[in-house]
Amino acid sequence: MPVGGTEWLEMAREQVKKACDMLGLESAAYERLKEPEKTLEVSIPVRMDDGSLKVFTGWRCHHSTALGPAKGGIRYHPGATADEIKALAMWMTLKSSVMGLPFGGAKGGIRCNPKELSQRELESLTRGYVRAVSDLLGPLRDIPAPEMYTNAQVMAWIMDEYSSIRGEVALPVVTGKPVELGGIPARDTATARGTVLCVREAAAVLGLGLKGASYAVSGFGNAGFNTAYCMAELGCKMVACSDTGGAAYSPDGMDPVEVLAWKRARGTVRGFPGSTDVPEDEFFALPVDILIPAALEGSITEEIAPGIRAKLVVEAANGPTVPSADAVLEKKGVMVVPDILASAGGVTASYFEWVQNLQGSSWAEGELERKLEKIMVECFSSVYKMHRDMKVSMREAAFLVGVKRVTDAMRLRGWL
User: Fold this and answer.
1) Are 3 and 81 in contact (CB under 8 A)?
2) How many angstroms separate the CA atoms of 215 and 313, rounded?
């Protein structure tokens, strides 16, 4: 990823500007949307296990609260930057808007390598971050969630530290918590289930049979593995997967559970028995029906796009396809289901958790999955209708739907 993440922020702004222009909105709409409402940068001192003191940099960004309280995950990553966090917050605004949720967009991050931190150091870092940004947080103000290299345990620490600061138990201040602390059982797999529902709906409109359809997943973390696991329920066959250590390819197919066990034992999917190694620059050109990018931003570039042979690309990651690559894929007739729709299952499940915490209620897992499916199918349908009626790409259609809802809210609130 380019240092500074500035390219991702410019990419997000381009996408929003294009939607504003296509909708014929007043210039004030884009002026309000191109910059976040607020971004806080903090320094977090942590006493390390060896006795030394290390200071980490973190951010919390509110892009827009036009539709409701700010909502967005917190990532721990050595490449995190302020501009990257701003871009991700902007995409979160549009993601919640596309899904019709009463949330604005936010994002947080700490520049660190969590793989190099002990459990005690990680907890100390997390609690220090909460103390530094606590004035921005609140069940009706800003609700964080897990993101890259954060999980339910990290969310439990956030909830506990915030509750200690406020002197009250504040379960709704964060989502993605352990079930024992007000979390919901479907949260861990919700992003993946939403992605796979988009695969199913897109395949239906394309006339692509899913029984035996081949797919490749780039990135084999939580989103990548769970997506692969759920794809098996559709009868699809994973023939390739990759992570930061390399890639594995087997035309005969690979069991996602077995690949995950191999990765946990050896740290990478590379070398999985029966598979062959694939160079990074050849992975996206493999002969598959469906491609699922589930890693970092900017994975599919203008140089990579011409070689893609998949009929369908469904984005489980945030911002995996750069705009110039989008144009190439559009010309090739490849349908791309964009991140702000395809990866929105997580924020939708977070909404369910937040509502239950506010109400003090609990829904069964089966009910949660039915609610998620209903919303994902309806939102795919609204984006696809915009795509068909306006004769634009699926990404452009999703941004048109999202930007319109946000700007309608801003206008009603007297912001424009």
Assistant:
1) yes
2) 10
Q: What is the pLDDT of residue 412?
A: 98
CATH number of 189-342: 3.40.50.720
Which pLDDT score, from 0 to 100, does residue 151 have? 94
pLDDT in tens, 140-178: 999 999 998 999 999 999 999 999 999 999 999 999 999
Q: Distance (Å, rounded) from C-alpha 394 to C-alpha 361?
A: 36
Residues 165-195 as b/e (b if ≥16 CB within 10 A, e otherwise) read eeeeebbbbbbbbeeeebbbebbbbbbbbbb
Contacts for 385-390 with beta carbons within 8 Å, 24 or more apart? Answer: 390/22
Report the catalytic residues.
107
The residue ranges of every structural domain in the chain are 6-173, 189-342
Residue type, 94: L
Which CATH class, in words, describes the domain spanning 6-173? alpha beta
List of long-range contacts for 146-149, beta carbons under 8 Å, 24+ apart: 146/73, 146/74, 146/176, 147/72, 147/73, 147/74, 147/75, 147/107, 147/108, 147/109, 148/73, 148/75, 148/76, 148/77, 148/221, 149/75, 149/76, 149/77, 149/114, 149/115
The model carries a pTM of: 0.92
**Fold identical between 6-173 and 189-342?**
yes
